Amino acid sequence: MGVSMPIALKIGGYILLDIGVAETYILDFEKNIYDRWISVSLIKKIRNNKKFPSAKGLIIQMKKDESEAKKYFEYHGVSRKL
C-alpha cells in the first residue's frame, strides 16, 4: 500500500544532453529512495520552464518554488513529514 506525500516535480530536459526528464522532489523528506519506483499525481502547475543565467539564480528560484508548493499543500490540508 502506498503513502501519499506532497511533492514538487520538474518536467523538462537538459538542453546540452537533448533528453527529457521528470525530477521529483518530496517535500520535507530526507531518505534515499533513488532507483525506487514511485507514482505521482500532478495537481497544480507552478511555472513554465525557464533558463537561468547562473546556478545561483536557479537555486533562488527552486527555493521560491518549494515555498509556493508547501503553501499550496498546507492550504489544502496536505502535509506529511516522515
From TrEMBL:
Q: Which UniProt key words apply to this protein? A: ATP-binding, Flavoprotein, FMN, Nucleotide-binding, Transferase
* Oxidoreductase in keyword set: no
**GO molecular function (one):** ATP binding
Catalytic activity field: riboflavin + ATP = FMN + ADP + H(+)
In the record, biological process GO terms are:
riboflavin biosynthetic process
- Cited InterPro entries: Riboflavin_kinase_bac/euk, Riboflavin_kinase_dom_sf
Q: What is the E.C. number?
A: 2.7.1.26
Q: Which domain of life is it from?
A: Bacteria
> Which part of the chain is the Riboflavin kinase domain?
5-74
Keyword hit for Flavoprotein = yes
Signal sequence, renumbered to the chain: none
Pfam families xref list: Flavokinase
Q: What's the top EC group for this one?
A: transferase
Its name, as the record gives it, is riboflavin kinase
